[in-house]
């Protein structure tokens, strides 16, 4: 699987990269610190990701703004790509809003654990 993580937290990105390296499910990963950086990457890639994990609270472009841009610019082009919000937010309104987007399949509290990642891959593989 091909995975993108978008988060402005450098320490969390380091942990996510370690998890990607040790995962038997991930063939390619991209770690991004911002929504605009990821949109630029998506514009240039020939191989769309299977999953994008995006944080909500980020500077420049928050996670909801990224999701809206993704759906406008790439949703039809990458119909197999699913998004998961990966956030420390405990606000129920954030979860409701996130799950209201057609591209979003779930809302996960940080940090993402390797067993959660494996469950997601197994579930998507069955779909």
Please, could you describe this protein's structure?
This protein has 127 residues and is of the alpha/beta class. The protein has a single domain (2-126), classed as Rossmann fold (3-Layer(aba) Sandwich). The protein has helices at residues 10-22, 35-44, 63-73, 92-99, 114-126; strands at residues 2-6, 28-32, 51-54, 82-87, 104-109. It has a five-stranded parallel β-sheet with strand order 2-1-3-4-5, with helices on both faces.
Which second-level CATH architecture applies?
3-Layer(aba) Sandwich
Mean pLDDT: 93
Separation, N- and C-terminal Cα atoms: 14 Å
The largest β sheet comes out as:
5 strands, parallel
Number of domains: 1
Q: Helices and strands: which structural class?
A: alpha/beta
Q: What is the gyration radius calculated from CA atoms?
A: 13 Å
Instruction: For the largest sheet, list the strands in their spatial order.
Output: 2-1-3-4-5
Helix content: 40-55%
Looking at the structure, what is the overall shape? globular
CATH topology: Rossmann fold
- CATH superfamily assignment? Response regulator
The total of beta strands comes to 5
Contiguous uncertain segments of 5+ residues? none
CATH C-level name? Alpha Beta
Topology pattern, helix = H, strand = E: EHEHEHEHEH
């Amino acid at each position: 699987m091909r995975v993108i993580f978008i988060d402005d937290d450098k320490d969390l990105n380091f942990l996510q990269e370690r998890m990607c390296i040790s995962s038997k499910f991930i063939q390619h990963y991209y770690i991004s610190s911002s929504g605009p950086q990821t949109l630029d990457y998506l514009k240039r890639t020939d191989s769309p990701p299977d999953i994008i994990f995006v944080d909500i609270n980020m500077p420049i472009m928050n996670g909801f703004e990224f999701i809206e841009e993704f759906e406008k610019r790439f949703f039809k082009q990458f119909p197999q790509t699913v998004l998961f919000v990966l956030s420390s937010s405990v606000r129920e309104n954030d979860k409701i809003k996130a799950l209201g987007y057609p591209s979003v399949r779930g809302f996960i509290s940080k940090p993402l654990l390797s067993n959660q990642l494996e469950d997601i891959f197994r579930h998507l593989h069955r779909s």
